[in-house]
Amino acid sequence: MPRPLGDLEDAVMTRVWQWNRPVTVREVLEDLQQERSIAYTTVMTVMDNLHQKGWVRREVEGRAYRYTAVSTRAAYAAALMNEAWARSDNPAAALIAFFGMMSQDQRAALNDAIRIVQGDTPLTAPPEEGAEETGPQER
Questions:
Q1: CB proximity list for 64: less than 8 A, separation 6 or greater
Q2: N or C: which end of the chain has fewer CB within 10 A?
Q3: Around Cβ 57, how many Cβ atoms within 10 Å?
Q4: What is the mean pLDDT of residues 117-135?
Q5: CB–CB of 29/40 below 8 Å?
Q6: 124 CB-near residues (< 8 Å, 6+ apart)
Q7: DSSP 8-state symbol, 70
Q8: Which runs of consecutive H residues, i.e. helices, occur in the chain?
Q9: What angle do CA 80, 132, 34 make, to 5 degrees?
């Protein structure tokens, strides 16, 4: 299970996942600068860290790297939920509490997911963001 992403890591990965294409540090920097003051070297370091952690792969293009997500946001969220549930001393109670926090729309989505996993309903929606469905391995 990967550790949760930090705030800046999450901001970078959000862009990589949303854009669903190889991105450069400069592209991410320019988009982040619309929200906050941030240095090129900071974004470069974060993207290098994400590469070292296995969240992105990179390929050299000219004098820069292009980064691509290794996993989807859905796989990341699922891994976090699974880890939190596995750490509970009472998994049933944890699920009940979690379901109690859900909105009606979230419960409907959960019911749809259960039907799909049980084979009652075929999966018709395209995979999220087109990336691979497995997350990086913990190091």
A1: 24, 25, 26
A2: C
A3: 14
A4: 59
A5: yes
A6: none
A7: S
A8: 7-19, 25-32, 40-52, 73-86, 91-101, 104-117
A9: 70
Separation CA 3–CA 6 (nearest Å): 9
Measure the CA–CA gap between 88 and 95, rounded to whole angstroms.
10
Q: What single letter denotes the amino acid at residue 99? A: F
CA distance 16 to 38: 17
Residues near 18 by Cβ (< 8 Å), separated by ≥ 6? 129
| Residues 111-124: b if buried by 16+ CB within 10 A, e if exposed | eeeeeeeeeeeeee
| pLDDT at residue number 30 | 98
Place of tokens 């084979």: 119
Q: How far apart are CA 118 and CA 91, in angstroms?
A: 20
Residue in 68, 78, 88 with CA at minimum distance from that of residue 131: 68
Residue 138 is predicted with a pLDDT of: 43
Residue reference for tokens 């109690």: 100
